[in-house]
Amino acid sequence: MAEDLEYLRGKITELSGNLQNTDFILHGTVRKHYMKCGHKGCRCQRDPPELHGPYYDWTRRVDGKTKTVRLTEDQAKIIEQ
């Protein structure tokens, strides 16, 4: 029992140190995707299609609702770190 307690205290100390080295934490998911547009004759309408993109979306829950924001590639890289 005492050994378990000491182990847990050590783990808490270790994790606290890891948190101090964290710049920031953002909840949610970053998704990279490609899409088709609605313009006839566009390259994305061919077979096989050449889709537009990549696009990056950050999706998360805020006050019980799903919020999605379009990101630049640089912003997506920062958030994914």
Describe this structure as you would to a colleague.
Strands 1-2-3 form a three-stranded antiparallel sheet, covered by helices on one side. The longest helix has 19 residues, at 2-20. The model has no long low-confidence stretch (mean pLDDT 89). It contains two helices and three strands. It has helices at 2-20, 73-80, and strands at residues 29-35, 52-62, 65-71. By secondary structure, it is of the alpha+beta class. The chain has a domain at 29-81. The two termini are 38 Å apart. Strand 2 (52-62) and strand 3 (65-71) form a beta hairpin.
Q: Please state the overall shape, judged from the principal axes of the Cα atoms.
A: elongated
Structural class: alpha+beta
Distance between the termini: 38 Å
Compressed to H and E, one letter per element, the order equals HEEEH
Mean pLDDT, all residues: 89
Strand order of the largest sheet: 1-2-3
Which stretches are poorly predicted, pLDDT < 50 over at least 5 residues?
Answer: none
Please count the beta strands (DSSP E, at least 2 residues each).
3
The description of the largest β-sheet is:
3 strands, antiparallel
Give Rg in angstroms: 21 Å
Helix content: 25-40%
Percent strand equals 25-35%
Number of helices: 2
